[in-house]
UniProtKB/TrEMBL annotation:
<dbReference type="InterPro" id="IPR006249">
    <property type="entry name" value="Aconitase/IRP2"/>
</dbReference>
<dbReference type="InterPro" id="IPR018136">
    <property type="entry name" value="Aconitase_4Fe-4S_BS"/>
</dbReference>
<keyword id="KW-0004">4Fe-4S</keyword>
<dbReference type="GO" id="GO:0006099">
    <property type="term" value="P:tricarboxylic acid cycle"/>
</dbReference>
<keyword id="KW-0694">RNA-binding</keyword>
<dbReference type="GO" id="GO:0003723">
    <property type="term" value="F:RNA binding"/>
</dbReference>
<dbReference type="Pfam" id="PF00694">
    <property type="entry name" value="Aconitase_C"/>
</dbReference>
<keyword id="KW-0816">Tricarboxylic acid cycle</keyword>
<dbReference type="GO" id="GO:0051539">
    <property type="term" value="F:4 iron, 4 sulfur cluster binding"/>
</dbReference>
<feature type="domain" description="Aconitase/3-isopropylmalate dehydratase large subunit alpha/beta/alpha">
    <location>
        <begin position="69"/>
        <end position="577"/>
    </location>
</feature>
<dbReference type="InterPro" id="IPR015931">
    <property type="entry name" value="Acnase/IPM_dHydase_lsu_aba_1/3"/>
</dbReference>
<dbReference type="InterPro" id="IPR044137">
    <property type="entry name" value="AcnA_IRP_Swivel"/>
</dbReference>
<comment type="function">
    <text>Catalyzes the isomerization of citrate to isocitrate via cis-aconitate.</text>
</comment>
<comment type="similarity">
    <text>Belongs to the aconitase/IPM isomerase family.</text>
</comment>
<dbReference type="GO" id="GO:0003994">
    <property type="term" value="F:aconitate hydratase activity"/>
</dbReference>
<dbReference type="GO" id="GO:0046872">
    <property type="term" value="F:metal ion binding"/>
</dbReference>
<dbReference type="InterPro" id="IPR015928">
    <property type="entry name" value="Aconitase/3IPM_dehydase_swvl"/>
</dbReference>
C-alpha cells in the first residue's frame, strides 16, 4: 500500500545523512502549524508508518484536519519508540511474556517469537521499604532487606535480561523510574539502527510516565497488558483526542514552590474535566518555569486526569540536556531535527488551536497542600488547620455513632478502649521519651516520590529550611517517622556538596533508599508504641509527604489523613508534629533561648535556593552517577539466574506461571451473553485502583495473608502486594482487599467483605468469588463516577478477571483502567442519561442478564431481576469498548490472547 503523504527526506548533520518524515506533503493541503504540539508528534508517527497496514491516508487526513471541539470518534494507531517499566508492574509483564512463550510452544509455534521488538527498559524502584529510618545506616539496612525479600523476583528479572532481546534492567538502589528516565534514558529525538530520526515517544506501565512530557516527549501510562502488546509490535489503538491548552501567565511570587503550582493546576484541571484528553502548556509564563518545574507539573497528569500534560521542546529543554550530561552531538541534533520538523517552540510562534483553554496566573499562587485522601483536593496552607478540624469533627461523630451502635447491641466497642478514644490522646513512651499521641499528630513525614525529588529547587529548599531550623535548635517531634527517599543518586550528591545532608539528618531525614517508598505504600511499619497508641485511641493521625498519591489506605493502613506537600513543608510539619498547628500563625517550636520560632523565620528565599543550585549542581554529577547505571552492585551481579529461553517456573511464592493462557484454543469462540450474573462488589464514586488492587502491606488475617502462611511464609516476610504481583494466587486473594474499601453489599464494613447469594452470608470477597466459580456463576461490579482512578495497575483488571468478573457497570471510568478492563476481557458498561445504580434502585442483590456485545454495539440492554420482591429492572448501558481494535481484544478474551493468536498465525 502506498501513501500520498509518507514521503521521506534527508537531513544532514555534522557530515552524517539521516532519514526523516517531514510534514511537507500534508502541509500542501492542511494547516499543520495550527495543530497542538502533541498532535504534530502523532502526525509524524502516522507518516513514518504510513506504508504499514495499520495506517491509511484517511487516518493521516483525519489528524491533519483535526477539529478542536469535535467529540473524539476517529481511531488511529500509535507506535511508541520504546516501553518503560518499573518492577511492581514490570515483573508481572515479564511473567506474562514468559507464559506466552510456553503458550506458543503449546500451539506448536516457536517460543522465541515472543520477544520485545521495541527497546524496553525496566527500573527497579518500587520494592524498597522504609523499615529502618532516622539513622546513618538506614539506607544500607533497607537495601539489604530489599535484596533478601525480593531475591526470587530479581533472579527472574535477571533471567529475562538473558532470555529477551531489547530488554535492559536498571538495578535496585539507583533511582525512581521517572527520574532516571528524565535524567538519563530519554532521547528526545530517536536515531534507530537505520539512521532514521523521529521524536522520542513511549508508553510506560506506571501512570506517572507522563513526567517525561516535561522534556517535550510524548508518553503516558498504560496497563502492563497494553504495554506487553506494544513490546510485541502491536500499535496502541487510540481515538484522536481533544487537546486542552493551559495558558501560563504572570510571575511566581516569592516563597512559592513548584509543588504549590502543580497542586493548583491539578485542582483547576480536575474541575475543568480533562479525563481522556491531552493537555498542553504554553504562554509567556513558560519562561518562569525550569525544566524540573515542567516535569513536576507533567508528572501529575494522572492526578488531573489527562492522558498527558506536555510542554514544548525549546532552549530550556536543551539547557536541561546539557545539565544532565547529554552529549553536545545529541543536543545539536535535537535542535536541528525539531526545527526542521516544525516541532521547535519559539515564543513568537502563533498560538495553536485547542479544544479548550485554561488560564493560570502564576502571580496568584499561594502555599498549598492537598488531602486528606485525594490529590486534587487542594487546601491553602492558611486553611490547613481548620480543614483538619472539620475532618476530626466528622471522625468523632462517626466514632460516637459506632460506640452507640455497639452498646445498643450489647457488645463492646470496635474502636478500642472507649476512655482513650473519647479523650483523643494516648500516653506513649518511645525512644526514652514520654509524650501523648493525639488526634492530628503527624506520624509520617516523607520527602519522597518522583514528583518532587526530581526538582532541585524544592530539595534545596528543604535542606536550607532544615539548616535554618537546626541553627535555632529546633527538633523533629519524637512521634514523627522521617525519611528521605530521592529519585536519583544525583540528589544526595548535590545535597552533600551543599553541606545540607547533615542538616536534614539532624532533623531525622536520613537517606532510606532511592525508590518510591512512602508514596507507593512502602512507608514500612510505624514504631510499635505509636501503632498501638493509634489503635487504642482510634486516633485520627496524619502523614505529610512530597508525593503524588494519598488515596485511602495507600500510605499506611493506620493513617487515615494523608497530605501532599512540598519537601520544605514536609520538614516544617515534622517540626510542628501536628496538623493542629497553624504554620502561618503558630510557632513551630522554641529556639535555644526559649523564643518562639515561626515558619517565616526559617523559610529560605528564592535567591538563596538558586545560588545553592548553581553552586552545587553540575553535568559532572549526572555523568558520574549514570556511568554504570545498568551494572548494579555485587549482590545484584551475584544473583543466580537460568539462561534457558523458556522459564522453568521453580517453586516460588513470588513468581508463578499465570493461568491466563491455559487451554487457549487457536481461535476464539463467539462472544457470549452474560446470564444470571451476581454482584460481587457495589461501590460509590472515586474508587481507585488502590481500592481494587492494593500495593501495600498484607494483613496476616486476610485471604492473601492466610495463603502465604499456608506456604510457610511468616508475616514478617510477607513483603507487599506490589512485590507479589508475579504470583496470581496472592493477587486474586488481594483483589478488593484494601482496608478502606466500603462494599455497599456489606454496610458498615471496611475491607474485603461481601455477601454471598443466595445464602445472604457475609464472607470475604475472594471466598465468595470462588464459590460462585464452582457454580459457574458470572459476576459483575456496580460502581459510581471515576471508577479506577489512580495508578495504571493492570492487576486491578487481572484480579477481577480471575475472580470471575465479566462486566463492570459504572457511572464513569478513568482512562487507563477502562482500557485495562477491555484488555482482560471484562466488559466496561456505563450508565446513561444520568442513571446510576441507586437511581435505578439496584441494591446488588439482583441477578443480571447482559446481552452479547457485537462490534457495532453502542448501547445494550441490561435486565436485573430481584428475587426478594420479584421485581425486574431494565435499563440501557453504554458499551465502553471505544475502538474496533478494542473489540477484537474483548472478543479474544483479552489483548494478550489476541496478540498471541496473531503471532501464532
Amino acid at each position: 500500500m502506498s501513501s500520498n503523504y509518507a514521503k521521506a527526506a534527508k537531513l544532514n548533520h555534522n557530515g552524517q545523512s539521516y532519514t526523516y518524515y517531514p510534514f511537507n506533503a500534508v502541509a500542501e493541503k492542511y494547516d499543520v502549524a495550527r495543530l497542538p504540539y502533541s498532535l504534530r508528534i502523532l502526525l509524524e508517527n502516522l507518516l513514518r508508518h504510513g506504508e504499514e497496514e495499520f495506517v491509511s491516508d484517511a487516518d493521516i487526513e483525519a489528524l491533519a484536519n483535526w477539529q478542536p471541539k469535535a467529540d473524539p470518534d476517529k481511531e488511529i494507531a500509535f507506535v511508541p519508540a520504546r516501553v518503560l517499566l518499573q518492577d511492581f508492574t514490570g515483573v508481572p509483564a515479564i511473567v506474562d511474556l514468559a507464559a506466552m512463550r510456553d503458550a506458543m510452544k503449546d500451539l506448536g509455534r516457536e517460543p522465541e517469537k515472543i520477544n520485545p521488538l521495541a527497546p524496553v527498559e525496566l527500573v527497579i524502584d518500587h520494592s524498597v521499604m522504609v523499615d529502618q529510618y532516622g539513622q546513618a545506616d538506614s539506607f544500607k539496612k533497607n537495601t539489604e532487606i530489599e535484596m533478601q525479600r525480593n531475591k526470587e523476583r530479581y533472579q527472574f528479572l535477571r533471567w529475562g535480561q538473558k532470555a529477551f532481546d531489547n530488554f535492559r534492567v536498571v538495578p535496585p538502589g539507583t533511582g525512581i523510574v521517572h527520574q532516571v528516565n528524565l535524567e538519563y534514558l530519554a532521547r528526545v529525538v530517536f536515531n534507530n539502527d537505520d539512521n532514521v530520526l523521529y521524536p522520542d515517544t513511549l508508553v510506560g506501565t506506571d501512570s506517572h510516565t507522563t513526567m517525561i512530557n516535561g522534556l517535550g516527549i510524548l508518553g503516558w501510562g498504560v496497563g502492563g497488558i497494553e504495554a506487553e502488546a506494544a513490546m510485541l509490535g502491536q500499535p496502541v489503538s487510540m481515538l484522536i483526542p481533544q487537546v486542552v491548552g493551559v495558558r501560563l501567565k504572570g510571575a511566581i511570587p516569592e516563597g512559592i514552590t513548584a509543588t504549590d503550582l502543580v497542586l493548583t493546576v491539578t485542582e483547576k484541571l480536575r474541575k475543568l474535566g480533562v479525563v481522556g484528553k491531552f493537555v498542553e502548556f504554553f504562554g509567556e509564563g513558560l519562561s518562569q518555569l525550569s525544566l524540573a518545574d515542567r516535569a513536576t507539573i507533567a508528572n501529575m497528569a494522572p492526578e488531573y486526569g489527562a492522558t498527558c500534560g506536555i510542554f514544548p521542546v525549546d532552549e530550556e529543554t536543551l539547557n536541561y540536556l546539557r545539565l544532565t550530561g547529554r552529549s553536545d552531538e545529541q543536543i545539536e541534533l535535537v535542535k536541528q531535527y525539531m526545527q526542521e520538523m516544525g516541532l521547535w517552540h519559539d515564543p513568537d510562534d502563533k498560538e495553536a488551536e485547542y479544544s479548550d483553554i485554561l488560564d493560570v496566573d502564576l502571580s496568584e499562587l499561594v502555599p498549598s497542600l492537598a488531602g486528606p485522601k485525594r490529590p486534587q483536593d487542594r487546601i491553602d496552607l492558611t486553611s490547613a488547620k481548620s480543614a483538619f478540624d472539620n475532618l476530626l469533627d466528622e471522625h468523632k461523630a462517626q466514632q460516637e455513632q459506632l460506640i452507640a451502635q455497639f452498646e445498643e447491641e450489647g457488645g463492646h466497642t470496635a474502636v478500642g478502649h472507649s476512655e482513650a478514644a473519647e479523650q483523643g490522646e494516648v500516653k506513649v513512651n518511645y525512644r526514652g521519651e514520654d509524650f501523648y499521641l493525639q488526634h492530628g499528630d503527624v506520624v509520617i513525614a516523607a520527602i519522597t516520590s518522583c514528583t518532587n525529588t526530581s526538582n532541585p529547587a524544592v530539595l534545596m529548599a528543604a535542606g536550607l529550611l532544615a539548616r535554618n531550623a537546626s541553627k535555632l535548635g529546633l527538633k523533629t517531634k519524637p512521634w514523627v517517622k522521617t525519611s528521605l527517599a530521592p529519585g536519583s543518586q544525583v540528589v544526595t550528591d548535590y545535597l552533600e556538596q551543599a553541606g545540607l545532608m547533615d542538616d536534614l539528618e539532624n532533623l531525622g531525614f536520613y537517606l532510606v533508599g532511592y525508590g518510591c517508598t512512602t508514596c507507593i505504600g512502602n512507608a514500612g511499619p510505624l514504631p510499635e508504641p505509636i501503632g498501638a497508641a493509634i489503635k487504642e485511641g482510634n486516633l485520627l493521625v496524619s502523614s505529610v509527604l512530597s508525593g503524588n498519591r494519598n488515596f485511602e489506605g495507600r500510605i499506611h493502613q493506620d493513617v487515615r489523613a494523608n497530605y501532599l506537600a512540598s519537601p520544605p513543608l514536609v520538614v516544617a510539619y515534622a517540626l510542628a508534629g501536628s496538623m493542629h498547628v497553624d504554620l502561618y500563625n503558630d510557632p513551630l517550636g522554641q529556639d535555644k533561648d526559649g523564643k518562639d520560632v515561626f515558619l517565616k523565620d526559617i523559610w529560605p528565599d528564592t535567591e538563596e535556593i538558586q545560588q545553592a543550585i548553581q553552586a552545587n549542581l553540575s553535568a559532572d554529577s549526572f555523568k558520574s552517577k549514570y556511568a554504570d547505571v545498568f551494572k548494579g552492585d555485587q549482590d545484584w551481579q551475584g544473583l543466580d539466574a537460568p539462561s534457558s529461553n523458556r522459564y522453568e517456573w521453580p517453586d516460588s511464592t513470588y513468581v508463578r506461571k499465570p493461568p491466563f493462557f491455559d487451554g487457549m484454543a487457536a481461535k476464539p469462540e463467539a462472544v457470549p451473553a452474560i446470564e444470571g450474573a451476581r454482584c460481587l462488589v457495589k461501590v460509590g464514586d472515586s474508587i481507585t485502583t488502590d481500592h481494587i488492587s492494593p500495593a501495600g502491606a498484607i494483613k496476616p488475617e486476610s485471604p492473601a495473608g492466610e495463603y502465604l502462611q499456608e506456604q510457610g511464609i511468616k508475616p514478617g516476610d510477607f513483603n507487599s502486594y506490589g512485590s507479589r504481583r508475579g504470583n496470581h494466587e496472592v493477587m486474586m486473594r488481594g483483589t478488593f482487599a484494601n482496608v478502606r474499601l466500603k462494599n455497599q453489599l456489606a454496610p458498615g464494613s471496611e475491607g474485603s467483605v461481601t455477601r454471598y447469594f443466595p445464602d445472604d452470608e457475609q464472607t470475604s470477597i475472594y471466598d465468595a468469588a470462588m464459590r460462585y466459580q464452582q457454580q459457574g456463576t458470572p459476576l459483575v461490579v456496580l460502581a459510581g463516577k471515576e471508577y479506577g482512578t489512580g495508578s495504571s495497575r493492570d492487576w486491578a483488571a487481572k484480579g477481577p478477571a480471575l475472580l470471575g468478573v465479566k462486566a463492570v457497570i459504572a457511572e464513569g471510568y478513568e482512562r487507563i483502567h477502562r482500557s485495562n478492563l477491555v484488555g482482560m476481557g471484562i466488559l466496561p458498561l456505563e450508565f446513561v442519561d444520568g442513571d446510576s445504580a441507586d437511581s435505578l434502585g439496584l441494591d446488588g442483590t439482583e441477578h443480571f442478564d447482559i446481552e452479547a456485545v457485537s462490534e457495532q454495539s453502542r448501547r445494550i440492554k441490561v435486565v436485573a431481576k430481584r428475587e426478594a420482591d420479584n421485581t425486574t429492572i431494565e435499563f440501557e448501558a453504554k458499551v465502553r469498548i471505544d475502538t474496533p481494535n478494542e473489540y477484537q481484544y474483548y472478543a479474544n478474551g483479552g489483548i494478550l490472547k489476541f496478540v498471541l493468536r496473531k503471532l501464532a498465525a
